[in-house]
Structure formats: structure tokens, C-alpha cells
């Protein structure tokens, strides 16, 4: 054990840089990751639902839906998720990470049943609002739980589970949507919370939360379950307690918005804005409509299945490259890829609608453009804004700032999905995709000028660079694990 003494002030701080006995890759951690990620599957299914469902809903004889109401069916979920993200912060702190996640299962079920049995569009909207609330709570609680339970040696692998299984949820929705109408698809959605609920009952609360509540014995039992019965956990328990004592100092709102922290917050908000204003959720929510508008010779429902498969596969490509090529390089590639594909997609609609040229032989262009667009998005602008939120936000304000950034992300999501139909009506499909492409191009310059490279750097080194502060302490904890929710009083 190496003891580092700091005596540059009137007091001394002892920091232990402990070499753990590396625990084995246990089935308990896999089960925990799968259980939490089943919630991400529901999130993915909820996000993709409107793409196949709105087509059958608007042509249904059992329910009447106007185009404006249809836009609300798509846009209400992210708006409710914004509220859920704000609620989720205090919940994970006061009732625990596991119970917060558990509390979303039954409302998810109720929301989907309301949609499935609806005879009027207002019940569909109510169901989407309930599901959206749970999506917002889950989007904050899932990474906090995994960050606090998975050991560092496998955090990269198991930390991928929510994204991968969430994409499976999108793919399931697209495949099922080819054969089911909007009501039947909602019934399928109502079945997903059942295995999610069962699996969540099988895993413990996080040791870190127990420690924060002074329940040390329960923390030991939870950590022993996660690491395996024969693993020594004394050192890890002690370091969790030391980390909690440091991070547990709440920051005030005035300190959160102090000048030295504004650069970090501005970069995170910028990345979140360009992530959503690239049009990603408009493409996911309205994939079927996009292919229907294009007049593509390829069946639009089959196209969405292919798109969902590409989205799923691209997740693993991103995982293989993110710690090799660096964040900024991947963001460059992502920005250029999305810009080019959106311009090509916009040009296709311009040639067809404005120039009135025959494009029946070019029906493959919309599908190819969307596939490459999704590949580019999933390579960097999908995962990196969330990753860098945990990396560049200083520890002292990480909880409050992360809550603000999460809420802002859902606000941007709502803005794009709610206005997508109106923008198409106003400036046409070609103008809409050119607009999104222009935003991606501006995002490239934002990355070049503002975003720092964080690959291979400790959180302490990043924080020193962002705030100009000097310190000798080396942080060893996960960036996600250090995220604490915004206190109720803020």
C-alpha cells in the first residue's frame, strides 16, 4: 500500500492508492448489467415506437389522429422525459438507485396499456407522457447504478450493455412494427417491463448508496454479492467511503454557475445540443415516414429493420474505437459523415420535388444515406457527449451540472421531434435535411475550437486543465460513479 501525504496547508490529507486484489468477472455483475439494461430496452422501444406506429395510427378506423396530434405523440415523450430527468436526480439520492429504477417498471406497464387500449388520442398522449417520465428517470438512474456496481476491469464491456440492449429494443420495435398495428405494438411494449421488474428484484442496491446512508454492513453484503463470495472487499469498501466523504460535500447553485466551471458546462451543453439538433431522434421517430416520403422502391418497414440493425452493429464499432482513436477524431469523422449524408438525403428530395426529375431508379439513396448517417452518429455524437459529461465536469459540481445537461438534452430532443413535421411542411423535406446537415457542419467547428481531448487522461488532469487548478491527488474512481444528483433544494 502506498500512502501519499499532503501537507501544503495547515492540515494533512491522507489518500490511499490501494492495489486491489482484482476480482474475477463474476456472473453477478453480468446479471446486474442485464437487469438494468432491460430498462434501456424499454427506452429504446419507446423511442422507436412512433416510427412504425404513426403510419398505422393515422390510417386506423378505431382512432382518429390529426397530423398535429401525431406530432405530439412523437414529441410528448421527450418532453415528459425532461421532467423525469429532474425528478430522477432527487429520487436516486433519497430512495436509492435500485428502488428508483424499480419504480419505473409498473408505470411503464400502465403507460403502454393506456396506449394499447386507447379509443381516443388523449389516452395515447397520456400513455406516452407516463412512459416519457419513466424514460427520463431511467436515463439518469441506469448509468449511476452501473457506474457504482461494475468493477473497473470490465466497466467498458458491461457499461456497453445499456446502449446495445437499448438498440435491441429499437430493432424489436422496427421488426414487430412490420407485422403489428399501433395497438398490438403497444401490447408488445407492455410485456417488456415484466422481465425488467423480475430481474431488478434479483440484484442489490449499490454499495455507494448504502455507504452514503451510513449502512456499512448492507454495503458490504451488496459489494460481496457483486464481486463474488471469495473476493476480498475491505480495501474497496474503504475507498468507497473515502470517495463518498469527498464528493458528499454539496455545492451551492452560486458555485455551480461560477466562472471557473462555466467552460466545462458550456462544452457539455454544446455537445448535447449538437447531438440532438443533428436530427437523430427525428430520424429514429419518423423512419417509416422518411422512406414513405422518398417513394423508395424498398419496402419502408423493411428499411427500418435494416436501419435498426445498422444502429445496433455500429454500437460495437464505436466501442472498439473510442479509446484508440480519441474523442475528438471520432467527433470529426462523425460530424463530416452526418453532414454529407444529410446533404445527400436533402438533395434527393430536392431533385424529386423541386426539379420534378424521375428518381425511381434511385430509391436506394434514402436507405443508404440513413444507414451511413446512423453509423456516423453512433460512432461519436451518440455516446461521446454522455461520456464527456462525466469526464470534464469537475467533481464538486458534477451532480448538479450533470442534471442540468441531462434536462437540456431532453429539451433539445423534444424541440426536434415536436417541430420536425412543422419544419417539413414549412421548408420541405430537402430544406429540413439540409438544415440538420448545416447544424452538423457547425458542430464540427465547435469540436475543433472548444472540445478538449480526454483520451488517456485522468479525471484530475482533465479537471486541472478545465479549471486551472493544481492538485496532487490522483482520482481513481469512475466518472459515472462520481455523478451525484441535483439536491432538492437547488
TrEMBL record:
Q: SUPFAM superfamilies from the xrefs?
A: MFS general substrate transporter
Cellular component terms (Gene Ontology): plasma membrane
Q: Where in the cell is it found?
A: Cell membrane
Residues in Major facilitator superfamily (MFS) profile domain copies: 32-455
One Pfam family, please name it. Sugar_tr
Mind listing the UniProt keywords for this protein, alphabetically?
A: Cell membrane, Glycoprotein, Membrane, Transmembrane, Transmembrane helix, Transport
Membrane topology designation: Multi-pass membrane protein
Segments passing through the bilayer: 30-50, 70-89, 101-121, 127-146, 158-179, 185-203, 265-287, 302-322, 329-351, 363-388, 400-420, 432-451
PROSITE patterns per UniProt: MFS, SUGAR_TRANSPORT_1, SUGAR_TRANSPORT_2
Primary residence: membrane
Q: Per UniProt, what is one GO molecular function of this protein?
A: sugar transmembrane transporter activity
Has the keyword Transport been applied to this entry? yes
- Listed InterPro entries: MFS_dom, MFS_ERD6/Tret1-like, MFS_sugar_transport-like, MFS_trans_sf, MFS_Trehalose_Transporter, Sugar/inositol_transpt, Sugar_transporter_CS
Identify its protein family.
Answer: Belongs to the major facilitator superfamily. Sugar transporter (TC 2.A.1.1) family. Trehalose transporter subfamily.
Q: What is this protein called?
A: Facilitated trehalose transporter Tret1
Protein's organism: Papilio machaon (Old World swallowtail butterfly)
Upper taxonomic lineage: Eukaryota, Metazoa, Ecdysozoa, Arthropoda, Hexapoda
